[in-house]
Design brief:
Number of helices: 16
Distance between the termini: 23 Å
Strand content: 15-25%
Largest sheet: 8 strands, parallel
Helix content: 25-40%
Structural class: alpha/beta
Shape: globular
Bound molecules: 1-deoxynojirimycin
Strand order of the largest sheet: 9-8-7-3-2-1-11-10
């Protein structure tokens, strides 16, 4: 069936500081990633997304970019980036870079010029005002404005003061940011993950937020200008061959609000965090899946599926350390309709590291999920001796790549079976989704493409449950390996899941 690669793909998110360290300084780097690409191939993912690799003062660990067209020396060089892209392509892995369009670092030359004087040609590249409006920054309930003494005006930063917001209403800013995309597209990357891209559109008057909703959404997060800027961005990508793609972080938490940002002339896909936000509960998962599917059908867009990323507590931590639950969720992640994004380390069932106060570094309190990946059971876990920048996640002696690759019953082995199954299974990749039943304990859904039918049955309760209608189907993948290659007898074990095929 004819579908672009990004609809069939499973993307693996790498947080470069924490993935693998070739230089031995305790911070992951591009050469380390390249050395470990075989893990991605072994797992069976189709591409990787790298969190920011650009020169940065690291106030927000790379989401404060000081130069969009180079690589931070901590991570390597531009040549290392080129080598990594080429090495990934030799393995048929796509590469998405993080693009941070809403704000730069306060150390970016554009901002340094902008703050120089009120008449500097770069002044209007950022948002300067005599009086702040009522907007708040993301990491603290304090104003999103900082007074810059030198010129006596306030500048806007929806995140840290070290992350001033760019003024996308200025065509020169838009052109410069398009050139950033071209710089990397010319270097053969397959696309981008666009950071908080829903925020780039702003009413030039910067009016006060008028909270009109009962939830925590704020009006300036949904400014119509964003759609205009996304159409221009899409035209840049469409100017290249090879089906380049952009997935945007549209952090609105509601599929019906998110879907309008994707489509044939805007983002290829927008992140949907409904599953990530859902409690481990059949009804909560069903509600999330149904809402996402409804939004995608209504707007004619292609959904995404996310269980974890570098901003959230890890799946295992959210599920009270229960691997059986994380396994059930993994089955859903890789079989529901949409492109899954898998956060590196979730395939090992890592929990958040316990980070003592003196080692905490992130202003957003997100260190736990960013702990380094343990590659083996040795003392340094494959990190060449240096104590890495954050403590190890719990149980690195067993929750490491080497141990789990050896063990056919491990969490990583389950991910591998699911990924292999999905790769050869167009119904699981592209099929329609139909939720079956409304049990409070068991989530069931079907994926159908032409004559091909799959059924997924996931038992969220701690008791075995009877399931109607799938008796006699064959078990293609199960959270417990010894339940595979059998005929389904209609009973699903406690906290477990199966992928079934028509007999
Ligand atoms: C979303 C990113 O995922 C997060 O890590 C970052 O802090 C903010 N955007 C600001 O760039």
């Amino acid at each position: 069936m004819d579908a672009p690669w990004w609809q069939r793909a499973v993307i693996y998110q790498i947080y470069p500081r924490s993935f693998a360290d070739a230089s031995g300084d305790g911070i992951g780097d591009l050469a380390g990633i390249q050395q470990h690409l075989d893990h991605l191939t072994w797992l069976g993912v189709d591409g990787l997304w790298l969190s920011p690799i650009y020169p940065s003062p690291m106030a927000d660990f790379g989401y404060d970019v000081a130069n969009y067209t180079d690589v931070d020396p901590l991570f390597g060089t531009l040549t290392d980036a080129d080598d990594l892209v080429a090495a990934a392509h030799r393995r048929n892995l796509k590469v998405l870079l993080d693009w941070v369009p809403n704000h730069t670092s306060n150390r970016h030359p554009w901002f340094m010029a902008s703050r120089g004087s009120r008449t500097n040609p770069y002044r209007d590249w950022y948002l300067w005002r005599d009086e702040p409006n009522n907007w708040r920054q993301a990491f603290a309930p304090t104003p999103a404005w900082t007074l810059d003494e030198r010129t006596g005006q306030y500048y806007l930063h929806l995140f840290l003061p070290e992350q001033p917001d760019l003024n996308w209403n200025n065509p020169a800013v838009r052109r410069a940011m398009h050139d950033v995309l071209r710089f990397w597209l010319d270097r053969d990357v397959d696309g981008f993950r666009a950071d908080v891209v829903h925020l780039i559109g702003k009413d030039p008057a910067l009016p006060d937020d008028q909270p009109v909703r009962s939830d925590s959404r704020v009006s300036f997060h949904e400014d119509p200008h964003t759609h205009r800027w996304l159409r221009e961005i899409r035209a840049v990508l469409d100017g290249y061959d090879g089906d380049r793609a952009m997935v945007g972080e549209v952090n609105l938490r509601d599929p019906m609000a998110i879907a309008p940002y994707a489509g044939p002339d805007q983002l290829h896909m927008a992140f949907d965090f409904r599953l990530l936000d859902a409690a481990f509960d059949a009804t909560a998962f069903r509600t999330a899946i149904t809402a996402t599917d409804h939004a995608a059908r209504t707007h004619g867009t292609w959904p995404t599926v996310v269980l974890g990323n570098h901003d959230q507590a890890r799946v295992l931590t959210r599920y009270d350390g229960r691997e059986d639950r994380a396994r059930v969720a993994a089955v859903v992640l890789l079989t529901v309709r949409g492109t899954p994004f898998l956060f590196a380390g979730d395939e090992l069932g890592l929990a958040d590291a316990v980070v003592p106060p003196e080692r905490r570094v992130d202003p957003g309190g997100r260190d736990g999920c960013r702990a380094p990946i343990p590659w083996n059971g040795r003392r340094d876990h494959g990190w060449n001796g240096d104590d890495p920048w954050l403590p190890w996640p719990p149980e690195p002696d067993v929750r490491n790549v080497a141990a789990q690759r050896r063990d056919p019953d491990s969490m990583a082995a389950l991910y591998r079976r699911l990924l292999r199954r999905r790769r050869d299974d167009p119904a699981l990749q592209l099929g329609d989704l139909d939720v079956v039943g409304s049990s409070p304990d068991v989530l069931s859904y079907e994926r159908t493409l032409g004559d091909e039918r799959r059924r997924v049955v996931a038992n969220f309760s701690d008791q075995a449950q009877q399931v109607a209608g799938a008796h006699g189907w064959s078990v293609l993948v199960a959270t417990r390996r010894d339940h595979e290659d059998r005929v389904f007898d209609g009973t699903i074990g406690p906290c477990s899941a199966v992928v079934l095929g028509v007999p």
